[in-house]
Amino acid sequence: MCGIVGCVLKNKKAAPILLDCISKLEYRGYDSVGIATENNEINIKKDAGKIIDVDKKLNLADMEGDCGIAHVRWATHGDPNQINSHPHTDENQTVAVVHNGIIENYLDIKEDLEKEGHVFKSDTDTEVIPHLLEKYMKKGLNLESAMREVINIIHGAYAIAAISKNEPNKVVATRKDSPLIVGMGEDAYFVASDSPAILKYANNIIFPDQGELITLTTEGVTIKDEHDQVIEKVVETIDWTPEMAEKEGYDYFMIKEINEEGTAIKNTLTEKDNIKKITDDLTDINRIVFVACGTSYHASLTGKYLLESLAGIPTDVLLASEFKYSENTLNDKTLVIFISQSGETADTLKALNIANETSKTLAIVNVAGSSATRRAKYVIHTQAGPEIGVAATKTYVSQLTSIYLFAALLAHDTNLLERLQKVPEYLDDILNDSEIIEKMASKYKYAQDFFFIGRGYAYPTALEGALKLKEITYIHGEGYAAGELKHGPLALIDQGVPVVVVLPPGENHRKTMSNLEEVKSRGADVIAVGSFEDEKLISKANDLFLINNEVDDIIAPLVYIIPLQLLSYYIAIERGLDPDKPKNLAKCVTVE
């Protein structure tokens, strides 16, 4: 994943603002950073490394020009080094380009350009773009028309922004299968990969469609369709404040966002009326299919339990990357629900395109105006606000809240709707006792393996707890349905191996206690998350985190995940790791 920002400002240096904006995209994952500005020539500073380190070395803000582009890169073609860092130029530095995505046919294009005399410096696929732009501009085309020629040639996924020394105070950008937004502020115009980058300067946002050309000048924004006709686009005002994308006194975004989960649930519960309109319209479906990746997949598994138990509708859960192998089972009586925090996940969008051909589609998304919201028939907006930490926390509980509302309304379960209102209180109680988890983290920080087990509604919670641990602590963690222990995992249980048992009150309690006994008898250290009134559990576990007894197995997924998120967070801190920026991972994976 990479991050892009481009801007045109009126009488204000672009480089300091580009540096500020691109720093807000660190969560997308990166290994190098670079900025280019235009001031009758192209000025570039770039290198591999963290933004703070590259800035200390190069003073990235010290470049002239009111117009520029910036980039944080996660290497796909070519090693992470200074030469392969973006922005890239043609050999004459006529044009500079930043690019997010993959150009699938770049080798063929590069070979043709080299035969024409073009000289390449890097190992990247991106470098063909500035060479192509220069080629067409030499033929008399302006930057915008040259960009149209380029996107008619290149294949793959991309978001591109370019500047040229021949066309002052102008940025030209376009997108296909990679996110790009347009921002409009006071005497300031932007393109960016995500809104947190530019909220400080612009909150009036346009979401361009595939193949549209965006041109920023000091006079404003022009957008043209694939036929090069100027079009009017809907402008949406993002009500996230700049402060929402800041740490606000917390050490890390992850702990800030865990503490915001109660508010995220409250805000998402306000979507009830909108969700009811959707459920009222779904009178003839006889099957539901969830499609998601990662954390969203675990939220979907909880949805399966809810919809089948409450509404009696057969429900499947498919990984987005595996969806195409099941597409022939869809029909017009099937509702396909797509869950994506960003609404730009590549695998999910491809599956959404397929499902739209045969079935009703619903997107559960946190980013208004994103690609998924424009492609699905129905949309539920989670109200988590911006989430900067790579490991999903408040977006997960917001997705769950949306699913609970959908299931309760579809099943006309008024009791569940009422119970959801109390969930934020339970979360507050957990956060007030977080020092218990902090002490556990110190005890288990050197563990090499963790196992998480649960039954029924607790099973997806165990999976998500294991995923969080892997993501930010780099400790091997596995989640299992508790009844599967005897089918293999018990062979891995040994003296001192931590096993986290997710054990809310409910019909599965007795059987899960038997599984707890199984691992304890083999020497495991049992870390239990259960109820205050569960005396049997309290007598058996090595370490405990206890929760209000009102939280039974049905609503436990919304509550019991919080201690597991905290456990992973505090273990990461104990191990000296940055929980916001886990290695090799990014927030929004838009390239397959």
Description of the molecule:
- It is a single chain.
- With 592 residues, the chain is an alpha/beta fold.
- The strands form four sheets. An eight-stranded antiparallel beta sheet has the order 3-2-4-1-10-9-11-14, covered by helices on one side. The protein has a six-stranded antiparallel beta sheet with strand order 5-6-7-8-12-13.
Poorly predicted segments: none
Principal-axes shape call: globular
Q: Considering DSSP H and I runs of 4 or more, what fraction of the residues is helical?
A: 25-40%
Largest sheet: 8 strands, antiparallel
Provide the β-strand percentage band.
15-25%
Between the first and last Cα atoms, what is the distance in angstroms? 10 Å
How many beta strands in the DSSP annotation?
A: 24
Quickly count the helices.
20
For this structure, the quaternary state is: single chain
Give a concise summary:
With 592 residues, this protein is α/β, with parallel strands linked by helices. The chain contains 20 helices and 24 strands.
How do the strands and helices of this protein lay out in sequence?
Blueprint lengths: L2 E7 L4 H10 L8 E7 L3 E7 L2 H8 L8 E7 L14 E2 L5 E9 L2 H10 L12 H11 L4 H9 L4 E9 L2 E10 L4 E5 L2 E5 L11 E3 L6 E5 L2 E5 L11 E2 L15 H7 L1 H9 L2 H10 L5 E6 L1 H18 L3 E5 L14 E7 L5 H10 L4 E6 L5 H5 L2 E4 L12 H18 L2 H7 L2 H10 L1 H11 L4 E6 L3 H16 L2 E6 L16 E5 L6 H12 L4 E7 L3 H6 L2 E5 L8 H4 L1 H14 L18
Parallel strand pairs: 15-16, 15-17, 17-18, 18-19, 20-21, 20-22, 22-23, 23-24
Antiparallel strand pairs: 1-4, 1-10, 2-3, 2-4, 5-6, 6-7, 7-8, 8-12, 9-10, 9-11, 11-14, 12-13
